[in-house]
Specification:
The protein is an alpha+beta fold and about 475 residues long. The chain folds into three domains: about 5-145, 2-Layer Sandwich (Beta-Lactamase); about 175-300, 2-Layer Sandwich (Beta-Lactamase), CATH 3.30.450.20; about 315-465, Reverse transcriptase/Diguanylate cyclase domain (Alpha-Beta Plaits, 2-Layer Sandwich), CATH 3.30.70. It contains 13 helices and 17 strands. The protein has helices spanning about 10-20, 55-60, 80-85, 120-170, 190-195, 215-230, 275-280, 280-305, 315-330, 345-350, 355-370, 395-410, 435-450; strands at about 25-30, 35-40, 50, 65, 90-95, 105-110, 175-180, 185-190, 235-240, 250-260, 265-275, 335-340, 375-380, 385-390, 420-425, 455-460, 465. The chain has a six-stranded antiparallel beta sheet with strand order 3-2-1-6-5-4. Strand 1 (about 25-30) and strand 2 form a beta hairpin. The chain is elongated, with a radius of gyration of 33 Å.
Length: about 475
């Protein structure tokens, strides 16, 4: 509960009291135990137990609840609010609902003496209640949008950090490296590349081969790039390159296709000067191994989550496409688990992001040591993890979910007990792609969160409590 009063509804409450001719108006919110006075016009009241609240009766009604004289009403005659000073003798209240039809509170007016509402006053109170519900709904949406913007900014900062890490790594490399889009425009090149050709770090970005080299060389380079992308594999070549100082040298170049987060094909390349190695064959082997190491590090950066060491979302989705196609073609089982850390934001807020990172790292290790060998655990984003279970159906998914929750419950966490919620889904004949299977698991995860967290839910089926 936000401790700040619902300022958006102050005018509505004041207007309700004025129209009904009562000295007191309230907007209240209720849960299963308490009633909160979020806006008051007349005098101040603190939260109170639900069992003595007039609004606990009004919120269960579909129409306006009117108590003309509480002292002679059997439901309220012994109520502490009626026999106290000042007493509540008159009450009129109507439930407020969310857009989904869920009751959340009431708009009500009160008086210390009996009275009767006219039909016009009763109708006005109902209209004002709908207005108050709409305003509260707008506030809820605004707060949700603010949270979404915070998450977007957090993701943007994380992406920027990843890009800075990638650029720092590539610029520290002694190799020439670059990335082009499918049209042949340069999207990235490192400092070694810029130094070799005597240009600034950003001068050639967006340029194609036609704007950089002679007609013959540009046609040859473009044809080779297209051949590499069409072949879908890395190609090794030796090239004679003339540098900014006019000297010519021999470079061993490695080109390979790669993809961005949207699935667009690009061409990446790294090249090393092997001029001396043409004469000294022994040096060629050393350079070759060094270049292989660079390529391996690039591949790992592309498919591995740096924090947890698990595969990242891109690697998971690539594997999902293959496993779904295989399972559908061979009529085999396939299941997905989607796991979310409960109250993760509170951990970051209370103990700092380092503590949150520690939780994610430990959870990544726990998943890695709990799944089967053919299973693929991955970090799906933020505090969310996903596990792909080839040749496993609902029974296998339930078994793994149970083991994970047992491991999480038995783990020694650094700051406080940590729980997770899990959504599960198994393949069925109605699905046409793997992302639909993930969507079913996400629906089950949402149901687990909504049911109280610390549990696992099978889509359309069984529930496991933590």
């Amino acid at each position: 509960m936000d401790p700040v009063p619902e300022a958006e509804c102050d005018e509505i409450v004041h207007l309700a009291a004025s129209i009904c001719g009562t000295p007191v108006g309230f907007l209240t919110l209720l849960d299963e135990r308490q009633q909160w006075f979020r806006v008051s016009d007349g005098f101040k009241l603190e939260e109170m137990p639900r069992e003595i609240a007039f609004c606990a009766y009004a919120i269960r009604e579909t129409e306006l609840l009117v108590v003309q004289d509480a002292l002679i009403d059997g439901r309220f005659s012994e109520n502490p609010l009626v026999i106290a000073e000042p007493p509540i003798r008159f009450y009129a209240g109507i439930a407020m609902h969310t857009a989904e039809g869920l009751p959340v509170g009431t708009l009500c007016v009160m008086d210390t003496k009996p009275r009767i509402l006219s039909p016009e006053q009763a109708n006005a109170l109902q209209v004002l209640a709908r207005q108050a519900s709409a305003r509260l709904e707008l506030r809820m949406h605004r707060r949700a949008l603010e949270e979404a913007l915070k998450e977007k900014e957090k993701a943007r900062a994380g992406l920027q950090a990843s890009e800075e890490l990638f650029r720092a790594f590539m610029n520290a490399s002694p190799f020439l490296s670059y990335i082009k889009d499918a049209a042949g425009r340069l999207l990235f090149y490192n400092k070694s590349f810029a130094k070799r050709f005597g240009v600034g770090e950003y001068t050639w970005l967006g340029r194609t081969d036609e704007r950089l080299w002679s007609p013959n060389l540009s046609r040859s380079a473009r044809a080779h790039d297209l051949e590499v992308m069409a072949g879908g594999r890395m190609v090794e070549t030796e090239e004679r390159i003339r540098g900014a100082d006019g000297t010519s040298s021999t470079w061993r170049s490695f080109k390979f296709p790669c993809y961005d987060s949207a699935g667009n094909m690009m061409l990446a390349g790294v090249a090393v000067d092997v001029t001396e190695e043409v004469v000294r064959k022994s040096e060629l082997e050393r350079y070759h191994h060094e270049l292989e190491d660079v390529n391996e590090q690039l591949r790992k950066l592309a498919v591995t989550d740096v924090l947890t060491g698990l595969k990242n979302r891109r690697a998971f989705e690539e594997r999902l496409v293959l496993e779904f196609s295989s399972a559908r073609r061979r009529k085999r089982e396939l299941a997905v688990l989607l796991l979310d850390v409960d109250n993760f934001k509170q951990i970051n807020d209370r103990y700092g992001h380092a503590a949150g990172d520690d939780v994610l790292q430990k959870l990544g290790m726990l998943l890695r040591t709990t799944v089967r060998l053919p299973d693929l655990p991955a970090r799906y984003g933020g505090e969310e993890f996903v596990i792909l279970l080839p040749e496993s159906g609902e029974e296998g998914a339930l078994g793994l979910a149970r083991r994970i929750m047992e491991r999480v419950a038995g783990e020694q966490w650094n700051n406080e007990r940590m729980t997770v919620s899990i959504g599960m889904a198994a393949m069925n004949e109605s699905l046409v792609n793997g992302l639909q299977l993930v969507a079913l698991a996400d629906e089950a995860l949402y149901a687990a969160k909504r049911s109280g967290k610390n549990r696992a839910m099978l889509h359309g089926g069984e529930q496991i409590l933590g």
